[in-house]
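quick one, 339 residues, struct below
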Amino acid sequence: MAKMNIEQAWEFLFDRHNVIDKVNVDGLFRISATEINTIKEARLMAKFDQSSQLPQIFQKNKLSILPVTRGEYVIGRFATHKRVVYPAVKPIPVEIPSLQTLDYTNLYSEAAALLFAYNSGIIKDIMGNSNISFTVNGRMSSGSFEYKIEDFLNPKNTNKICVQNAQVEIDAGYESADAFCICEAKNVAAEEILIRQLYYPYRLWSAKISKPVIPVFLVFSNDVFHAFVYKFEDMYNYNSIKLLTHKAYTFANEDILLSEVIDLWKTTTRYTEPQITFPQADSFERVVDLMSVLADGGLTRDEVSLKYEFDGRQTNYYISITRQTNDLRNYEYIQLINK
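---
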């Protein structure tokens, strides 16, 4: 069988198993990782942190996919994602920790951002200025639980999902005297959260400990940490997630003076505007994110798509704008390897 990309592989599997008809009749379709692996690695075929990453056959039919065991998934019209809105608030300034091994100028990985958040006091502030300990991270088994999830087209309709020892990954867990915080981190300005990334760990730890479990989505972008603190109003309802509070933090809080802007303008070489296509990248924060990462080394097209959770069209837009910035400002360190 010829090598397929993820789009082609799912088209093939949907046709082989008559997935859409079975979802229409039964409400969901179960598929094993073993079956997916016959075409392409299941781990890659089922990871869609943003709904825009879902293959076209999923998007066209309003479908999504969820793990239910370590080796099985369900496909259905599930409302799996939630939109993330970034309020326009002034970030709270935080102290840069005086630690030689923690480089605040290089927080491009989620792990580095989480370590800075912990050591700078951001996590302590999120949890109410308690004494906290960093206690949990990595992959673990979900245990067994059931929940209901809304139909994407009709939220009044729900599907019952049974989970038994699915794989869960927690970016960080922090414990205080009176609460346990589970943290899902992104080092890009994500437009959505895949609720499962908070809900499965929430159910796992709610069954293991007596303390309240606080789900937090932590985003680091453009030198600003955004902390979205959630709660699940109904433990057994996947879609009962509710935003309690949002806080923003930064360590880059120096004011920019008018004199500095004037000096920069005077020392900038101006060029005649070239005849180029206007890029369609719609998030300046993500442009800055990408430029910052590229300053540290090149990325392939696929790596850009994976890191920023883009579909192919979005990747082209952002590659285009970084190329044009490179041409205009002669940033020789920006290199994209096109495949």
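The domain at 83-144+165-250 is CATH 3.40.1350 (Trna Endonuclease; Chain: A, domain 1).
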